[in-house]
Amino acid sequence: MSKGSIPYEESTLYPLLHDDEFAANYLTECLHDTEPALFLLALRQITEARNIKMTGLAQATGLDRAGLYRMLSEKGNPELSSLNTLLDALGFEIAIKTKAVG
After folding, report:
1. Averaged in consecutive runs of 10 residues, what is the pLDDT profile of the chain (102 residues)?
2. CA dihedral 14, 19, 90, 48 (to 10 degrees)
3. Is there a smaller number of Cβ atoms within 10 Å at the N or the C end of the chain?
4. How far apart are CA 89 and CA 81, in angstroms?
């Protein structure tokens, strides 16, 4: 990266992630990807884009700060209850819908 240039995430993606509907669609698309780590990356990107500190997120969720870091790491494997708690604190929820056929 050249001096003075801004990474793609910061210049293009992060501003979009401030929009709740865009962020929800982004999470949904990442969830449908075959690589589960992509969904956790999307959650990390949303917290970074919105400048949400892990300490504040830990207080809002009641989850351990170190546990949040582990949960959102590339090798994270959060329990459903922890994931629901985190999503709720970020203003999102998991929804199930019927699969389109054909």
Report:
1. 66 93 96 90 94 94 94 92 95 90 77
2. 10
3. C
4. 12
